[in-house]
Amino acid sequence: MNSGRTLPNVLVTGTPGVGKSTLCRNLADRTKFAWRDVSNIAQEHNCLDEYDPEYQCPFLNEDKLLDIMEGMMAKGGNIVDYHSCDFFPERWFDGVFVIRCNNTTLYDRLAARGYTGKKLEDNIQCEIFATILDEAQSSYKPVIIHELQNDTEEQIQKNVDTIVAWIERWKEENI
Ligand SMILES: Nc1ncnc2c1ncn2[C@@H]1O[C@H](COP(=O)(O)OP(=O)(O)O)[C@@H](O)[C@H]1O
């Protein structure tokens, strides 16, 4: 069931701005798992192709990125952080955590980040329609998907605690 991993691999996903990086940074500090920020990995390894003017971001060369990440994922103990989740191999992950945020809170966070116009509206729509949760449900077994609300500062610690407790349970059940 666990593909020989001695630690689980965790995917943290959700609309940009919901708080994935903040959560992953805290979780990595606490667990000493490796935080794999997929956008950074893609940038460092030249996996970004030409710029998409409609979505105001570069195209991701997914095959190249997956080849680079495959070795990192083998032993477990990874926290993968990305705003999309349907192109990773299903076998990589033991737990998928979809971070959710209230729309008005998300709007303020993305506006503060400098998002405007279509980019801002598209991301808010993405959260309103639970697009990433839907994507997770189409890509992974329901039993490994967990939805975490992340609107307030207090919820950051609560969500870290939830994932840490999940990791401990995974170890008890799989090692
Ligand atoms: N639970 C929270 N409460 C208040 N602000 C938060 C919370 N989580 C994240 N933030 C803030 O929201 C912004 C976006 O968070 P970030 O972690 O960069 O999101 P993401 O990685 O999903 O794009 C940052 O300014 C961060 O400090």
Quick take:
The protein has 175 residues and is α/β, with parallel strands linked by helices. It has helices at 20-31, 38-44, 62-73, 103-112, 117-128, 131-139, 153-174; strands at residues 9-13, 34-37, 48-52, 57-60, 78-82, 95-100, 145-149.
The major pleated sheet works out as: 5 strands, parallel
As for the CATH topology, it is Rossmann fold
Corresponding CATH superfamily: P-loop containing nucleotide triphosphate hydrolases
Runs in which pLDDT lies below 50 for 5 or more consecutive residues are none
Put simply, the count of helices is 7
Strand order of the largest sheet: 2-5-1-6-7
- What share of the residues does DSSP label as strand, in percent? 15-25%
Helix-and-strand structural type? alpha/beta
Mean pLDDT equals 96
Q: Tally of extended strands?
A: 7
Shape, principal axes of CA atoms: globular
Report on the structure:
By secondary structure, this protein is an alpha/beta fold. It has one domain: P-loop containing nucleotide triphosphate hydrolases (Rossmann fold, 3-Layer(aba) Sandwich), CATH 3.40.50. Helices cover about 50% and strands about 20% of the residues. The chain has seven helices and seven strands; from the N terminus they run βαβαββαββαααβα. It has a five-stranded parallel β-sheet, sandwiched between helices. A two-stranded antiparallel sheet has the order 3-4. β3 and β4 (about 55-60) form a beta hairpin. The chain is globular. The model has no long low-confidence stretch (mean pLDDT about 95). Adenosine-5'-diphosphate binds next to α1 and α7. It catalyses: AMP + ATP = 2 ADP; ATP + H2O = ADP + phosphate + H(+). Keywords: ATP-binding, Cytoplasm, Kinase, Nucleotide-binding, Nucleus, Ribosome biogenesis, rRNA processing, Transferase. Belongs to the adenylate kinase family. AK6 subfamily. Its EC number is 2.7.4.3. It holds the Pfam family AAA_18.
